[in-house]
UniProtKB/TrEMBL annotation:
Keywords: CBS domain. This is CBS domain-containing protein. It comes from Aromatoleum anaerobium. Residues 22-127 form the Cyclic nucleotide-binding domain. Residues 174-231, 239-296 form the CBS domain. Gene3D superfamilies: CBS-domain (3.10.580.10), Jelly Rolls (2.60.120.10). SMART domains: CBS. CDD domains: CAP_ED, NT_GlnE_GlnD_like. It comes from the Bacteria.
Length: 632
């Protein structure tokens, strides 16, 4: 072959590789190295390319054209759980060649295929010379997700240029030296300093300059002016102890979520030794945002009627869209949406409680489903209920009647604010869902003892609960009882596992995806639900109290001895599906629109198609673990 012909082949290889991740981001010298050493080989349909019996892989493979089926070694029959299909741009076997061990899969050409082969020794050299390739091989799906977020941010480049990114570290937002006083400073001296420096708050630190308290302008009236406190008293007597702290490395988003969750307006930023570095306020975080957190919080807290809360609901949505545009991750986004929706719901509850005779009733407002899991998207209906205490001698039905009237108004006002009434009547205004602790325990116990299809469906909804308002101890006590009871009933958990396996990831054996008749995939039913259902079972089995899918996977996975890398890949897969749902929903104008959770994979770019396929593979791995655990 002439030098010219060889150069043309290398150029063609390089052009092809640049179409796919991670090669499109690799350093030029590393990409040249790969293109020069990769050899294109032909594999006829039905040919085995790599099997465990062949021993340690001698080549790293990149599919150039055709299809390759990866089949798990061991099972006698081929099922959706033991196979996956690789297409152009996809590689194998990453884990085996990195660890220099035999592959655990067999790879067979299911079409006439052309595949680049890179010698194993060159693969290892490439990992050393290219940080991008090394990250890809060691954190496969996380690396793809990061690139997808970068693409999304690029598509919103103009908006990102107009607004300061929410991923900015807090340390970069602190522009002035920290101003503080010590606990023994008099109130008068502290107030004079606040006035002189035009501060909205004063931080109190110990001798090591570690924050121990804070006094804000909003504290002055209730703590100093009205009680007529002697201004010569030490400031430690009126300060708020244990103020909210965040490290300088935390992001603006982290601070925003903390403020939204706890309803505070100032966060103290600390250095690596926990010493005060400065103060970040809502104004600092959101001065460049079109819709500010302060506006949203003020709109919620100051709303005296449904009309005011409707405006706040629209602002929550707009703020969430700004964060999507800035590339904030799915877990943070759903937490942020949930935190603000929680504040909105609590305000609705407060307004309704003032108009209803529920004073003195020991109760808790329960959120179920996605809200109970902190996983609300921009399209969620309402799922809620009430748990209450009926003291000895009290008229239980009279208490229930009062709570039902209260719940009905809350449900109607939530609907007016964009959270549709639940079509299945899973709402606090339903007498079947306004129950005492004993009644809820009896209901849960019936479902566990007799797990018929309806009972399993109920468990999948109601077991994902959390207390949104009221007496949290009622929810905690019910959770402890539920976990102990379910964990002891292996037959119930096995039936839940059977139910969780009814829907398989929409991966084709030959085609990338299995589509519904309309050419789309339901990301809620065939994506997120797969992770949610298995995580619920693992949590019940291991006694994990959290209702969050991600926390259930992290905590239950650790208790079961799963590798950290495996858990991280599962969570990344779940996050990407959630992110696709959010990106799809932001194009809609109303909650709960019919197409909110549907996507057409053909409309995704090549990178997102590839990540979606990997996310579904992670769901399949999770289901396979359940299938093997319960021998289904």
């Amino acid at each position: 072959m002439t030098a010219t012909a060889a150069g043309m082949l290398i150029g063609a290889s390089s052009d092809f590789l640049k179409r796919f991740s991670p090669f499109n981001r690799m350093e030029p010298h590393a990409l040249d190295f790969l293109a020069e050493r990769a050899v294109l080989a032909f594999h006829a349909r039905g040919r085995e390319i790599l099997t465990p019996e062949m021993g340690q892989p001698r080549h790293f493979h990149i599919v150039q054209r055709g299809k390759v089926q990866a089949r798990q070694f061991g099972p006698a029959t081929v099922t959706d759980y033991t196979t996956m299909t690789l297409g152009p741009g996809e590689c194998f076997p990453i884990g085996a060649i990195s660890a220099q061990r035999p592959s655990t899969n067999s790879y067979v050409a299911v079409e006439d295929s052309f595949i680049y082969q890179l010698p194993a020794e060159d693969f290892l050299k490439l990992m050393q010379m290219s940080p991008v390739f090394h990250l890809f091989c060691t954190q496969y799906i996380a690396s793809l997700l990061n690139q997808s977020r970068q693409q999304l941010q690029t598509s919103f480049a103009q908006r990102a240029a107009e607004q300061q990114t929410m991923t900015t570290p807090l340390g970069e937002l602190v522009k002035k030296d920290a101003i503080f006083v010590t606990p023994g400073t008099t109130i008068r001296a502290a107030l004079e300093k606040m006035s002189e420096m035009r501060l909205g708050c004063m931080v109190i630190v110990d001798t090591e300059q570690r924050p121990v308290g804070i006094l804000t302008q909003s504290d002055l009236l209730s703590r100093i002016v009205l009680p007529a406190i002697d201004l010569q008293r030490p400031i430690s007597e009126v300060m708020t102890r244990d103020p909210h702290l965040m490290p300088a490395s935390a992001s603006a988003y982290d601070a925003a979520l903390e403020m939204a969750t706890h309803g505070v307006r100032h966060l103290l930023v600390t250095d690596g030794d926990d010493r005060l570095k400065g103060v970040v306020s809502e104004r600092d975080l959101f001065s460049l945002q079109r819709i500010s957190l302060r506006q949203v919080r003020a709109g919620i807290e100051g709303a005296e009627d449904v009309e005011g809360l409707q405006r706040a609901s629209r602002d929550i949505r707009q703020l969430a869209l700004n964060l999507i545009a800035q590339g904030v991750g799915a877990e943070q986004l759903t937490q942020f949406i949930s935190a603000l929706n929680d504040a909105l719901t609590r305000r609705i509850i407060d307004l309704a409680a003032a108009r209803h005779d529920i004073h003195g009733i020991d109760y808790a407002w329960l959120a179920f489903g996605s809200e109970g899991r902190h996983e609300q998207t921009l399209s969620s209906d309402q799922d809620n209920g009430v748990i209450f205490v009926s003291p000895p001698g009290a008229d239980k039905e009279a208490l229930r009647k009062r709570l039902l009237a209260f719940g009905r108004e809350v449900n109607e006002n939530l609907a007016a604010c964009g959270f549709p009434l639940c079509k299945g009547n899973i709402m606090a205004s339903n007498p079947e869902l306004c129950l005492t602790f004993e009644e809820w325990r009896g209901r849960f116990g019936d479902w566990i003892r007799e797990p018929d299809p309806q009972a399993l469906l109920n468990a999948s909804i109601f077991f994902d609960y959390r207390v949104l308002c009221g007496n949290e101890r009622l929810g905690d006590q019910l959770r402890t009882w539920l976990n102990n009871t379910a964990r002891a009933n292996t037959a119930f958990l096995r039936m839940m596992a059977v139910n969780a396996l009814q829907v398989a990831p929409p991966l084709g054996r030959i085609r990338d995806f299995v589509l519904d008749d309309d050419g789309t995939i339901d990301l809620k039913k065939c994506g997120a639900r797969l992770f949610v259902d298995v995580a619920r079972i693992l949590a019940l089995r291991t006694g994990v109290a959290s209702s969050s899918t991600v926390q259930r996977l992290r905590q239950a996975g650790a208790k079961m001895g799963m590798q950290a890398e495996e858990i991280a890949a599962l969570i990344d897969g779940f996050h990407f599906i959630q992110l696709l749902r959010l990106r799809s929903q932001h194009l809609e104008t109303e909650h709960d629109s019919p197409g909110d959770n549907r996507i057409n994979p053909d409309e995704l770019n090549e990178l997102d198609r590839r990540i979606l396929k990997e996310a579904f593979r992670q769901a399949r791995k999770l289901q396979l673990r359940l299938k093997l655990d319960y021998q289904l």
